[in-house]
Design brief:
The two termini are 28 Å apart. Helix content is 52%, strand content 4%. The protein is globular and about 50 Å long. It has a single domain, classed as dinb family like domain (Four Helix Bundle (Hemerythrin (Met), subunit A)), CATH 1.20.120.
Length: 225
């Protein structure tokens, strides 16, 4: 398999979100997503926060060593806790403060490309700090890509014409989920990559057949929130 350049995968992930929201009017930006209680504009503001965090992190090099990687990073975010509830409420209120939902799109289309340019300029052998962790630059970019791909899928239930996330970006997200599984787990062969991502993150429930095929590993799901 051809190695994936981390900055290219991030660019593809962010470009996919831009392609999804760029042509939406204010009414479409108020459609529901897979994230409970969040409209498209709300979720876009959340992902915008990641792009802004990327800019800060990439401008914050440290000597290291790294204390987490692109997989172990996610084990600190089990989801569904009080902090997530507070953040969800903060995002909704913050998005509502915009005069129009399309204002969030304009801010996204300014910020996301800047984050991608910063990623392309970063030293791939360097370390940066974010959210209390030190990560190698490629690992940081992989975490951003994984979150963007999952949220791209979250954006689309009521946007039937939305493009899917790009294949390089999806490969990074799938590799993250594979890393979170136990080494002896084989995911059901009937799952395509999107179904795997949705089930691994709790967006879709496991079926009885899934649980039978996964065996004890079914108890690991969702792999992240």
């Amino acid at each position: 398999m051809t190695p994936i350049r981390a900055e290219q995968a991030l660019a593809q992930a962010y470009d996919g979100i831009t392609a999804t929201v760029g042509g939406l009017d204010d009414a479409a930006l108020q459609r529901a997503t897979r994230c409970r209680g969040w409209l498209v504009a709300d979720l876009l503001l959340h992902v915008l926060g990641d792009a802004q965090r990327a800019l800060v992190a990439l401008a914050s090099p440290v000597d290291g060593p790294a204390d987490t990687d692109d997989v172990s990073y996610w084990r600190g975010f089990p989801g569904n806790g009080d902090e997530d509830t507070r953040h969800a409420w903060w995002v909704r209120r913050s998005a509502a403060a915009f005069d129009r939902p399309s204002g969030i799109v304009r801010l996204w289309t300014e910020t996301a490309p800047a984050a991608v340019r910063a990623a392309a300029s970063a030293d791939p052998a360097g370390q940066v700090t974010t959210q209390g962790h030190v990560l190698r630059v490629p690992d940081l970019l992989a975490t951003l890509t994984t979150e963007a791909v999952v949220h791209h899928l979250d954006l689309t239930p009521e946007l039937p014409d939305a493009p899917p996330p790009g294949p390089l970006a999806v490969r990074v997200a799938v590799a993250t989920m594979d890393g979170l599984l136990s080494d002896d787990t084989v995911r059901p062969a009937a799952w395509d990559d999107h179904e795997f991502l949705l089930k691994a993150t709790g967006r879709m429930p496991l079926t009885d057949r899934d649980r039978l095929e996964l065996g004890e590993s079914a108890g690991w799901f969702p792999l992240l929130g």
